[in-house]
Amino acid sequence: MAIAVETLDKLERRFTISFPVAEVQSEVEKRLKARARTAKAPGFRPGKVPMKMVAAQYGYQIETEVLNDKVGQAFSSAAIENKLRVAGYPRIEPKTADVVDGVLAFDATFEVYPEFVVGDLSSAEVEQVKTEVSDAEIDKTIDILRKQRVHYHPKGEHGEHGDGGAEQSAQAGDRATLDFVGTIDGVEFAGGKAEAFAFVLGEGRMLPEFEAATLGLSVGGSKTFSLAFPEDYHGKDVAGKTAEFVITLKLLEWAHMPEVDAEFAKTLGVEDGDLVKMRTDIKENLEREVKGRVKAKTKDSVMDTLVKAVEFDVPKSLVEQDGQRLAEMTRQDMAQRGMNVKDVPFPPEMFTAQAERRVRLGLILAELVKANNLQATAEQIKAQVEDFAQSYEDPQQVVKYYFSDRSRLAEVEALVLEENVVTYVLGKSKVTEKILPFDELMGSNQA
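Above: the chain sequence. Below: its structure as tokens.
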């Protein structure tokens, strides 16, 4: 039967679906008879249960199934007949007004995908960043790697690396091990006392007053000082209060960073200890990281441009679904980080703006891909997987890992598709190149 389409809003539509009650009853009876052939009940052999008992046990379930099937089939047929692209799921509600006897009617309210085209992008502006990896960046990275391999020696004790120098008091960079006890109004408080507590001066692990009191102490020396806990201190019992601490330095160690020599290079995986090869490897790794971050920033710029350049209404149902998905992803992420979020609410409304942008971009990208044949090719997917694999010790194992699972390849395909869109937009729009300093790029949140 033909079903008329009502337009309720820009994207909202409604079907009224109806069919005779007798038609539903006939199908219900047919399915009940089929169920009776295998139905079981105490005191009866399988298939010999009276129909009244079968109907009492399964009637409601089967009637619900029949109604769902009939409404679903009618809705699907009507959508196809009217050439509508349904977004999300329809809301089905029984209809009672203006319904004749002997007929069941339902209103199916739903949204459709917006119709739009991505027009001329020649006036759109995109910022493309560029970052160079120089010797200075390689040197900084080597310093970081040295600090990661630092080891400590007691000050004043001579060893293969020396005794730490003439200065025997606590200085920035030293590791201090001390006993301490803190009191508030003369009473010790939870967490205010420790023995053999070690920390590195200058790392910011301790409150500034604590570090300042430790600086200049020698082993065996003590100091008494006041410490005002910040109002927002994580320990609620002491936040905003002033404590008096007594500290005693038990051990003082100086930091020795490894020399940049063949042995150091070997710790970085350069088997023959060649320093030139070590620097080359570091530069290649940095360039790979820079490449990924630059691509991410350029992609963000392209996506921002597309959002501004293409205007259309977004289906609310898709935004709500994505908001729920983002809320659940946030909950799972926080739980994996060890946070107790069992009773913490995550209203999808918190994610509405982010969800709307994601849905909008998804629709724009799909239209661009369809209109300009930007689908990811098998060769592109293979090249992307091989590029991923280069940063691992055994690239071939990584390649096998991706190609052994279709879902993993689908993730790679989505990335390639986005890159195809970025390349297409860069070729059609006004591109402004921006030189971004290495430290600024690496300090950004792009990944």
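The longest helix spans residues 275-309.
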